[in-house]
Amino acid sequence: MGYVLDLGEVTKDSLHVVGGKNANLGEMLRKGIRVPPGFAVTTDCYLHFLEKTAIQAKLFSILDSIDPADLDVLDQASAQVREMIVKSPIPEDIAAAIKESYLRMSQSMGKENMPVAVRSSATAEDLPTASFAGQQDTYLWVRGAGDVLAAVRRCWASLFTARAISYRAQHHFPHEKVLISVGVQKMVNAKAAGVMFTLNPVNGDPSQVVIEGSWGLGETVVSGNVTPDHFRVDKIIKEITCRKISCKHVQCVPVPESKGVKEIAVAPERQSISCLEDCEIMELVKIARGIEDHYGYPQDIEWAIDQDLPFPENIFIVQNRPETVWSRKRSEPLLARKSCQELLLERASKITRLS
Amino acid sequence: MANGKRFPDPHEYIAGQIPPELEGWEEMYPPHFLFGDDRKDWEKRQFWYLDKIHAVYPMPPLDQIFQQAWQISLSQHTTRIFCIPPAQGVAHRIVGCYQYICAIEPPPEEIIKEKAELFQVRVHYPVEHYDELWEEWLSRLKKLGQELEEIKVPRELPKYMPAGEIFPNSFRGYGPSYELMEAFDRAVNCMYKGWQYHFNYLNLAYLYYLMFFDTAKKLFPGISDSAISMMVAGAEVSMFRPEEELCKLSRLAHANPRVGEILKKDGPAGQKIEALKGLEEGQRWLQELEALKNPWFYISCGSGWYNYEGSWINKLDIPFSYIKNYLERLDKGEKIERSFEEVSKTRERLVAEYSKLISSEEDRQTFQNAFNDCRVIYKYAEDHLFWVEHWFHTIWWEKMREIGAVIASTGAFKEADDIFMFNRLEVPTLIEDVVTTWALGEGVPLLNWSAKAEKRKKILQAAANWSPSPALGPAPEAVAEPFTVMLWGVVTDKVDEWLKGATVDPAQVDELKGFASSPGQVEGVARVIKTVEEISGLQAGEIMVCPCTNPSWAPALSRVKAAVTDIGGLTSHAAIVSREYGVPSVTGTGVATVVIKTGDIIKVNGDEGVVRIVQRK
User: What ipTM goes with this model?
Assistant: First the structure.
């Protein structure tokens, strides 16, 4: 297996080399769902790094020697190990492979130093992912091959945070068995972004897709700094049943110099107009249904609409995860096991309150 | 009962708010339809609202017969036959020529309990045996319609009985005086009986619809009303047959070019028929037409509720203009038939897809059962409409005109249609006066019926220019009567909307609410079409604003940008056809044809059931 794999080549069988997150992105691409283009730095690459830099033996011996219950020692060991990784120069062949993939992607987008997101993608899928996956780092708006390499190395290091070490120790999971892959994906320069649910998170209605979005990057919606536009769409008859347009006074934009994002004011004339066109709403709904069908469970999805691309290629899915609150209640009957006859009597006895 | 929301008190309203031009309106209607002292306390306790489903316009006295008949029949099926537990009947009152109705307050608790017992025993049979019951029902109604049609009306009250009708030839023992009296009485009896049949399964059909509606809302709290009606509404219902038959006639004419040429010409139907008689294939086409006229041309050009609407059978220009339009579309290679199969498939797909979203197996089964039961009996709500309001009513209108013509021939009033200026309890008096005067001999005066008819026409005219309060009395806290909820859509929003309307001048209204019957939002130029004859003025891409639509309006719906109606719910003809053509529509706004003027720019929001006047002409 090579050091890097284009996301387009990734399947769910590549899980052990690209990790869960990347494998999932590959699957989505295969299903025709647009995720931002990118590549995976494989677990082989990580292993090769450990071998080539010869830090492997020392690294694991440090970890094996500590008592994870002793927090001071744990913190110290974690810092030491991560320092070892971050300070070790990346071997030439690996660096070249990653650089080449990054430059090729930049070029194909017609951009120099294209901003990317660099994210860890762990393979320890037998560990409860919900509590484990979040422990690795994500770096947004990374620009230039040098910074990408540094971010990849930092992702590798994030496998050894104090919490991660302690967690594995508690569950008797050998540190050397946990491998890590890294995903490098184009940042979507979003005109508008937000989240959507394949059911109504307020009442669990599975016939609806609920979309919330605002101008600019998705951070404003996620952080709650802006009341987003709200849309509810009936999945089956594909009708927008509710449309609430809010006053969206600020938006998030990338800051090229600082690798971060900042909030700026939205022009007054754009504040109260819908951040989504009807065709974009319907396209999002189509994608949401595709993702839900693929996983067989309700999903919570982050989306973004690129300002540089034409519709519908401009619509990207940035993240998705299973919806957990209503999904757990799903098989409980809502009709209280009543027969049609009982429902009819109930209706016939019903008094419609008007106050 | 009151929840603080209060409309004008009915007795005070009548005393002070009816325009003076309507003076004398009370005399037009039977006394038990009027507010008054005898029943004052009870009347003040109830909530009365303007019936914008059946009686949008001022009520000509004889046209009130259907209202009189349904008040009894609808109510008895609710209270005494199926015993819907807390529901009582729907009472009527007339105020300044407009009909107000009221879902009467629930009965005492012990009555509700009694009825609940009976209800459970009585309600299931019709659903379980619907197909055979429908067959029986239809043959019963057809028989009655035939009986009504066969009632013999004397052609005139002759100066002397013709020799052929007296001895020794064939004296029947009675004269045309009795024959005329009997004809009207029998026709009235047929109408009342027909309206007894009308509600045989309708209350249940609505109840099952509401049950399915509740079930769907429990499983999918955000499901739209129109999604539910799309699942339930059928396409292959009797109401659509006339349109189908026209398509067949058009195809036949298209296959015979010489027939087609004649039918594509401009000009009245009568002229075309004469021309067709001169051709052998034309005669064959006319035979086909004759063969399907009864029942399929017995379709009202309006709702069936008003005498002036007319039916295809007596306004052949209407179906002939559609045939012309269909032939032109056939020439262009277009398909003219609506694809009922596709509609049915769509409906099945929707039900299957919603059903698939239900995660509990038990719920899914109940949803399916609720749908199946509802679908079985809801067919009645769709099928009865053609047979009663259109076919049966058309026969009635024809019969009344026949009787009216005899009366007019005696000079009691000017024209046959003047009969509609007298209510069904007055007409026997009128007829008795006419035949008595005839029997008494020469030079005997009649009461001045003609002056009365003329005065009433003026009152109705004045009433048409008046907007009565949308409701009277205290707004109720609750409604239990299924028709009130389903057909008239009396819910909190509606009452609030009416309260707003009660205090606002209709000329100032710039937003109307109705049923969100077909999704989509568009803005465009309105064209108000009050009668089907005005359809030819409709330009492609305009928004049609009309009282209501039925298949006699269908060809127009394919050309418009959106449709707005005064009358009609989610499963009305306009709603069904609009959804098929993908045209946004808002139905049942009550007053669109009054508030909106041709040339206004309006915005139709078929997602939320709102029509807004953006710019007045």
Answer: 0.83
